Amino acid sequence: MGVQFDDGAAGALISAARRADRVLGEQGAGRRGAAETAAQEFRGGYADLFTAACTLEAGDRGKLGRAFDSLAQQVEQAKQQAAEERARLSDLAAWDSREADRAERRDDDPVQWVTSTVEGVFDPRPSAPPVQPSTISVAFAAAQRNRTSAGVGSGTSSAVPGDLRTFAAHARAADTAARTEVDRVATAWTRFVASCSWVPTGGAGFLDGAHRYLDENDADAVWIGHVAEAFEQAGGGTMTNRSLDLFVSAFIAADGGDPATVLAHMDPEVAAAWLAANPQVLDRFLTAPPGWGTPGSVFDALVAAARVAGRAPTDYADLLQRMYVTRAAEKVGIDMGSWQLGRGAPALMPQVAGSYEYYGSLFLDNPDFTWAGMANMVGPDFAAGFLDLHSFRDHIAAAVPLAPPAVRPLMERLGEMGDDEIAFYERTFLDMQKDIFVDASTMHEAYLDGGMDSIRELRDAGLLLGATPDPNAAERSEAETFRAWQQIDAGMRGGQQDLVDQGNTTLLLREQRDTIQQNYTDMRNHAPTGEALTRMLGIVGDASIPGTKTLGQYEGGTEVPVDLVPIQPGVQGWIEHLYLPEENISEFDTRWEYIEGDTLPAWQQLVHDDPDRARDLVGASVPDRIADRRLDERAGELLGDLYEREYTWQ
């Protein structure tokens, strides 16, 4: 297959990353000086907010610079690894040519047979193993900054407006330069990913974080400009923090700002008062909730206002779900605004990995959330499959000669998949993964927020209805899910593990039957490869939980005796064990029987009998576990799961 690696694209990315790191570093002195000047006569609660915002900006700028430096170093390493692999392949190709020449001479002349054989002894086949490129993985997430006087609304603030405006002007100029560099890195990254597919990448989440950092800087400049204007209009250098909150909010609204942006500038008390005085704003958001990526504080304020106004939970159901999902996302740094399925699996790895990290944190904080722990364990297997779709055909081509004959036709069919089919399966998998996160985080965050009272609110809002077009099935799922949380709650309170297990099992049933079954059905029905792909999922899929089996192993497989002495009783030779599943894992009954009989009991046994090991496994790095489950790492293991030989002499 060669080494798909463009040295020019790699060099451009290295250059762009290092330049961005340098520009960010060079901005430090200027930004610090402008901030110190603005802070000299700045006093009170808003001065504290300003200082905190500047501290976060400086910290994030340093982290972002280090992320770009790390990116440059990792790409440099990838260039070296690509050069080593090319050299290895070149040496191997040269040896193949020499060996072919020797073989030809052996065939043509007996004398040459001796000569060529001797040459071969002193020219052994190069044995260096293939170079395995390191995954390029860069992480950066920008901190959200507070710009309201939460907790100090009764105090006062004072400032010199001109100093604040000078800071805002300097910050905008620096941000313009920084944004240019980030955009240059983004362009180089896109080219690199497209032309250097030999190197696995951990996604472009660091770029999402970089743009979020710049957006926070922009918001700071706008905010501090409005603060300066508020002081000027008040005719003095001192104002109450509450007055500043209202002034700043009014300026943003007058500028045509989104009411969601206005709310983001308010502390909870001011937000509640503003919404009470502007009921049309609440009505607007009940009809059209703010988009994903809106700060969680905005959803908190809107839901609180809807409750105070006595609105029915069905009226604010969308707001309620977005509040809880955003709360979960913010805990692990997931950017909901950029979680767009069309971006593809590599670009969405920060969101995908973040969701599994969230499940892990739920379990580590509360071991009775065993559904979450199991989701964390199985999730990296799922994510590795997303990433492997793009190289699936190459893996299939390499594996066909090594696979048992019975599975080769299926593999050959999948090796002919078109790009449009791969894109369909990728998007479907990503859709499944996101749907699970939205549904599960809603319920878990609600329970953490208010226990069974909040679960009842979800039920009253219709958010426990199963995701199925059949209204009877949806209502059945709602009743089962509410009962599951009652069992978990009662089990946790009374120390009854059986109730906790029953409730978590029902949450797993909801996930498999209601949340993602339609996706499995859509994949299986997708012509012309759907049946083959979903059958292959059952062949290669197993869970990263100790003691689990593949579907084929669980079913028992088939035995084929190879008898070298058929005239004698018994089998003198060996027995071939082939673990090809007879059923398709996309069928719910098949999959659920497998889960109930294999995966779930293995997880429950681990949690109950060896909780420390369970915690260690869940707490391990999610990106590393995803990398370990890639096909490149598991090829030998997968073939071993499919086939084994038992020698016998009976």
Descriptive overview:
Helix 11 (296-308) runs antiparallel to helix 12 (317-332). The protein has helices at 7-26, 28-39, 45-108, 110-121, 161-195, 205-234, 241-254, 259-264, 268-277, 279-287, 296-308, 317-332, 349-365, 370-388, 392-399, 408-414, 419-461, 471-494, 497-515, 517-524, 530-540, 551-555, 588-609, 611-619, 622-628, 631-642; strands spanning 43-44, 156-158, 238-240, 558-563, 572-578, 643-649. Helix content is 70%, strand content 4%. The longest helix is centred in the N-terminal third of the chain and has 64 residues, at 45-108. It is mainly alpha-helical. The chain has a three-stranded antiparallel β-sheet. A three-stranded antiparallel β-sheet has the order 4-5-6. The model has no long low-confidence stretch (mean pLDDT 88).
